[in-house]
Structure to design on (208 residues):
């Protein structure tokens, strides 16, 4: 089961929470779901040059949409004197009905965020770094940050090889079946010259 079920959805309401929080009528559900997806795409595309965005939470009430951006570089998101946030807010208000509020939270330990780790590995692979070196550097920095265990899988034409293959690296222990285990997971598709390389990262932070 641990191989086939997303560790985040598997632990919802136990150690994980939903990234979108709202209740609506069945007729509006599709519209709001599409809006949430577009909001996340706008934010991700705006800061896609470097791995920056860790998580985007969206909460909706009757007359307000609150977007909380968790990032490793709060200054880059906010911009000079808040110019970045104001520009992002105007862009989002074009697709969202009603007022929008954007909050920015800084991630204190980006090495313990699976999304940032996976995107950082993908960024280095895009710069033609050897995949073993990129993965082992990520493993070491994550374990030094206080993780109990890390598991990283990369798949594709690694180092530009003719045939695609899958490589797995594990440091410490990563329990996939234990519900009380706080496991962060992310799957990233990294574009490289040889094609797309898939990067999966599991980070075990202890039990809750």
């Amino acid at each position: 089961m641990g191989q086939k079920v997303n560790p985040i959805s598997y632990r919802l309401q136990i150690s994980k929470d939903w990234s979108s929080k709202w209740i609506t009528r069945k007729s509006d559900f599709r519209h709001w779901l599409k809006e949430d997806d577009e909001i996340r795409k706008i934010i991700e595309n705006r800061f896609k040059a470097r791995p920056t965005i860790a998580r985007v939470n969206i909460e909706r009430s009757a007359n307000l949409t609150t977007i909380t951006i968790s990032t490793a570089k709060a200054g880059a998101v906010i911009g000079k004197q808040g110019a970045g946030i104001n520009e992002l807010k105007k862009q989002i208000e074009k697709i969202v009905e009603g007022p929008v509020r954007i909050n920015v939270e800084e991630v204190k330990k980006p090495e313990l965020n699976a999304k940032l780790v996976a995107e950082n590995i993908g960024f280095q692979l895009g710069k033609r770094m050897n995949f073993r070196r990129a993965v082992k550097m990520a493993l070491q920095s994550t374990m030094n940050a206080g993780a109990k265990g890390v598991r990283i899988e990369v798949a594709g034409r690694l180092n530009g090889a003719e045939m695609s293959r899958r490589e797995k690296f594990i440091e410490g222990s990563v329990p996939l079946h234990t519900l009380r285990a706080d496991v962060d997971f992310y799957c990233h598709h990294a574009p490289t010259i040889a094609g797309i390389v898939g990067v999966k990262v599991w980070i075990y932070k202890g039990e809750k």
Observations:
- The mean pLDDT is 90.
- The helical segments are 7-10, 26-46, 74-78, 83-93, 114-126, 131-144.
